[in-house]
Amino acid sequence: MAKYIGPVCRLCRREGDKLFLKGARCYGPKCAFERRGFAPGQHGKTGSGRNRSDRESDYARQLRAKQRARRVYGVLERQFRRYFAAARRSHVLTGLSLLQSLETRLDNVVYRMGLADSRAQARQIVNHGHFQVNGVRLDIPSANLHPGDVIRVRDGSRSDPFFKEMPEMSEQRTCAVWLDRDLAELTGRVLRMPERSEIDANLNEQLIVEYYSR
Q1: Which of 28, 30, 119, 194 is the most exposed place for a label (fewest CB within 10 A)?
Q2: DSSP for 12-47?
Q3: Which parts of the chain register pLDDT below 70?
Q4: Angle at 127 between CA 158 and CA 161, to 5 degrees
Q5: What is the pLDDT of residues 157-210, one digit of tens each?
Q6: What are the C-alpha distances in Å from 120 to residues 67, 115, 126?
Q7: Model's pTM, two decimal places?
Q8: The pLDDT value given to residue 55
């Protein structure tokens, strides 16, 4: 399973915006984007980053939209292309279908339920086999869930200190409206597919469609 293993704060700086890839750290004074909000590289301070938006070509804007979506959900290029190809074959608007596929990944659902501090942490605990979906252990972070699917922490994982403290930590995190959760039982359910207004507004699916339609 491929994943990005480089410095994630560099990705926020490249996109010129906080992507909240490191959970609670992104809200504190140690956030690299707050300390160095310019683009990485030797020309970062000279205006080659976020101040360049007024001079960007259509292709550059399309590329940045695609890269932002990839980095928010932690998906590499080949897998992202497969998501787009599947979205194009669907009977829903291509851009919306793409975002719904990304939102209903198991790791993202765990994050949206408030059971993890970041998508990276959600990916890790899913990959370690701590969750069941519909009563079956599932350790594939990219597995897509559907309305009615039930997610729960495995009985064998509940004695772990991380999961013992999870209800208290998760109470401070919001749960997406298209999901339901029971922190006492450490379970959740997918109620329905997310609507566009319930997905990150900073993502521009139209530019992503234009990028792959060149």
Answers
A1: 28
A2: HHHHTS----SGGGGGSTT-HHHH--SPSSTTGGGT
A3: 1-54
A4: 25
A5: 999 999 999 888 888 888 999 999 999 999 999 999 999 999 987 899 999 999
A6: 17, 12, 10
A7: 0.81
A8: 74
Residues 6+ apart with CB under 8 A from 201: none
Residue 48: the pLDDT is 47
Residue where the block lists tokens 């292709």: 59
Dihedral class, residue 6 (left if φ above 0, else alpha if ψ from -120 to 50, else beta)? beta
Q: In 88-118, which positions are buried (b, 16+ CB within 10 angstroms) versus exposed (e)?
A: eeeeeebbbbbbbbbbbbbbbbbbbbbbbbb
- The b-or-e profile of 165-200 (16+ CB within 10 A means b, else e) is ebeeebeebeebebbebebeebbbbbeebbeeebbe
Spell out the domains of the chain, with CATH numbers in brackets: 8-102+200-212 (1.10.1050.10), 105-190 (3.10.290.10)
